[in-house]
């Protein structure tokens, strides 16, 4: 294949990837916007300690959800498309997913209610946390079934329904009932009650859309063969998802286990802000795996490497300016949530570096998986999860929540660099060329511009004025250096 042919084919593949990325990123921007406002309300009215208790509640629930789903969400992503032409089999797999999740979530919810004092004693050791756990245990089945329904939308390729319910309706409902309860003066108990109401309403909305707008509206009694096939796939996925939890959330869990609710609150705000930088990567990852699998198994390796490089460069470019802004203005950004959260500026700085590295390596993890290295991917996930847990324990005892950030940022950076190295060693693909220097130069220029505004301005004025001029400096520098035609084509496809 010639370079011109690879380029032409690559643009077609890039357009395919961008179709899902654009819709997904719109939904995530809306979701993050609602979430940001909700968190600002909670931090302002609850303070660091009670906000930390609320945050820790969500983290504990996310761990329990790994077991209540029992891999059901990923199973639907496989079996619903696989049996698109076999209606009975499709309904049987859907029935198994919901019945299993209902049974598992009811058992877990009962266990949380009965074991709330014990859970509190071994984590935050706060009577208020135990009370809130008991109050909100009822929402576990509703949250589990909502997540399962969201996966069903993705499995039948209805990203519009997924975005409408998961990214718009759910965060909007949470803002109204959780943020509203706290703003009205009901404090942490009000937030817990709002969490229950929002969980129930979200599931009702999701099920109404599923039943009325899709053909997934029937229940079929599964055969023994159906059950064996389903659980043979779903049960191992539970351990993979557990490894993912250790990799992504164990730091926050251990901060609560070893420190205080206030430390959890400060730490979580820094994590929330830094994860905004992963939005471009998450968006392009929606369809990149499918395109990568097709190109790889069709033997179009030159085109795949070209697509891999272009997507990685664009992800890095889109993440770079907000990363520089968060690095330069870390204290001012955290001050938006309240003065008590400013002490998390070093945590935010560490996570910004880690997330920027995540963007720099692009979809390397999915490329490994789609090129028949799924067991290596599993080993990467589990190894990094265990290492993250060990480092968190050691460094938290030594440095407090700064140690947690240092441990997690180190593991995140290391595993991403290892992944891109594995792709190069095993497949010979590298996403990097001289064009990566352009966004780097633009990032340096924008950083200097924003830093210059720290002298005459501060607080919100600094964020608006300095950030605005920094963005102009970034875009002008990119324009002067020249934007690649493939990047322009890809951005145009995303917008359209």
From TrEMBL:
It is a multi-pass membrane protein. It comes from the Archaea. It comes from Haloplanus litoreus. This is Flippase. It holds the Pfam family Polysacc_synt. The lineage of its organism: Archaea, Methanobacteriati, Methanobacteriota, Stenosarchaea group, Halobacteria. PANTHER family: POLYSACCHARIDE BIOSYNTHESIS PROTEIN, PST FAMILY PREDICTED COLANIC ACID TRANSPORTER. InterPro entries: Poly_Biosynth_Transport (IPR050833), Polysacc_synth (IPR002797). The keyword Cell membrane applies. The chain crosses the membrane at residues 51-70, 91-115, 135-156, 168-186, 192-211, 252-277, 314-334, 346-369, 389-415, 436-454, 460-482. It is found in: Cell membrane. Keywords: Cell membrane, Membrane, Transmembrane, Transmembrane helix. GO terms for cellular component: plasma membrane.
């Amino acid at each position: 294949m010639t370079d011109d042919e690879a380029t032409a084919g690559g643009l077609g593949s890039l357009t395919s990837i961008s179709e899902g990325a654009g819709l997904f990123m719109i939904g995530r921007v809306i979701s993050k916007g609602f979430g940001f406002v909700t968190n600002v309300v909670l931090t302002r009215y609850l303070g660091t300690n009670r906000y930390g208790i609320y945050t820790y509640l969500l983290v504990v629930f996310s761990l329990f959800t790994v077991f209540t789903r029992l891999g059901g969400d990923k199973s639907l992503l496989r079996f619903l498309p696989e049996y698109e032409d076999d209606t009975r089999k499709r309904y049987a797999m859907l029935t198994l997913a919901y019945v299993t999740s209902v049974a598992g979530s009811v058992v877990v919810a009962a266990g949380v209610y009965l074991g709330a004092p014990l859970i509190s004693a071994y984590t935050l050791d706060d009577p208020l946390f135990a009370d809130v756990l008991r109050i909100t245990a009822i929402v576990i089945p509703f949250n589990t079934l909502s997540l399962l329904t969201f996966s069903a939308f993705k499995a039948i390729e209805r990203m519009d329904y997924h975005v409408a319910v998961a990214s718009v309706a759910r965060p909007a409902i949470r803002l109204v009932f959780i943020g509203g309860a706290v703003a009205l003066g009901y404090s942490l108990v009000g937030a817990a009650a709002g969490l229950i109401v929002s969980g129930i309403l979200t599931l009702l909305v999701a099920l109404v859309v599923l039943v009325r707008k899709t053909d997934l509206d029937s229940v079929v009694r599964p055969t023994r063969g159906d059950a064996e096939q389903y659980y043979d796939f779903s049960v191992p996925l539970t351990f993979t998802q557990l490894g993912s939890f250790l990799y992504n959330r164990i730091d926050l869990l251990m901060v609560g286990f070893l420190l205080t609710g206030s430390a959890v609150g400060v730490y979580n705000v820094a994590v929330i802000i830094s994860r905004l930088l992963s939005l471009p990567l998450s968006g392009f990852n929606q369809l990149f795996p499918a395109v990568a699998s097709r190109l790889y198994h069709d033997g179009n390796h030159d085109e795949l490497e070209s697509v891999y490089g272009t997507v990685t460069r664009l992800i890095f470019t889109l993440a770079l300016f907000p990363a520089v802004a968060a690095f330069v203005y870390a204290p001012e950004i955290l001050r938006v949530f309240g003065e008590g959260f400013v002490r998390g500026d070093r945590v935010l700085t560490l996570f910004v570096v880690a997330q920027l590295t995540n963007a720099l390596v692009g979809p390397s993890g999915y490329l490994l998986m789609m090129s028949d290295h799924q067991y290596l991917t599993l080993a990467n996930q589990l190894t990094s999860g265990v290492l993250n847990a060990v480092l968190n324990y050691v460094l938290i005892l030594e440095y407090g929540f700064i140690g947690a950030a240092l441990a997690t940022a180190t593991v995140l950076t290391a595993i991403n660099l290892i992944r891109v190295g594995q792709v190069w060693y095993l497949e010979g693909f590298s996403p990097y060329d001289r064009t990566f220097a352009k966004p780097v130069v633009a990032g340096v220029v924008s950083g200097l511009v924003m830093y210059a505004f720290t002298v005459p301005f501060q607080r919100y004025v600094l964020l608006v004025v300095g950030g605005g001029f920094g963005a102009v400096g970034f875009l002008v520098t990119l324009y002067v250096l020249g934007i690649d035609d493939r990047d322009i084509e890809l951005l145009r496809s995303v917008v359209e």
